Each structure stands twice: as structure tokens, then as C-alpha cells.
Amino acid sequence: MMKEKLIVLKEADLTNNCPECFAQDLRLTFYQKESYGKLFHRTTRNLSHEIQCRKCGSVIYPVQWTQDIDRTFEYYQKLVSPNRSSIRFTTLFYVLMLLLIVLVGAGTYMFIQGGFPE
User: Fold this and answer.
1) Tally of domains in the chain
2) Fewest 10 Å CB contacts: which of 30, 41, 65, 89?
3) Against a cut of 0.70, is the pTM above it?
């Protein structure tokens, strides 16, 4: 079963006003999604973001953004550099592949030598 985790790429404190409580204490966070399995770890291209007010704790959705928040978001979005999309295999994968190669090689050797012992 694959487990998914969001890795924080960049956090920035914004000085824009919160649409809910009008405090100037917003935090913008960019995330990248990573999947973990028993055989491999995969970094995806999926980026997500969240703007949260640190005073009232509310999440500011794009519908509630003002023009100032939108401009600030676009600026920080250009600064984010996501990690490359990649797949890293685990040790279990390499052990299983080595075992499979040994079994195929042994079966081929037995077949060439005149069959399997009875």
C-alpha cells in the first residue's frame, strides 16, 4: 500500500491582511507530493499550496484572495523550484530482482545440463 506525504518546499510570511480577521499574519506554504511504497519511493510533479492565517487559524482559499494576496502569491510561486520527478528503488526491490535472476539462471543451467534431477 502506498503512503503519500507532502514535503514542504517553501514557506513565506506574508504581510497582507487576512480576509477573516484583518490581521497581517499570513503564511504561504508550497508542498510537493511524495509516495512511499515497499519497492520504491516516488517524487511527483504535483505541487500544492496553502495560505493560512496564523492569528485566527483559518485557511484562505483562492476565492477569498484579494488582489494584493494574488500578486504576492504569483511572486512567490515564481520563486518555488520543485524537486525533479523521480523514482528511487528500495533495497527490497534489488534483493527480489537478484533472487529472480539467480532462479532463472539456475533453471536455465539445469535445462541445458539435461533436465532436472528426478
Assistant:
1) 1
2) 89
3) yes
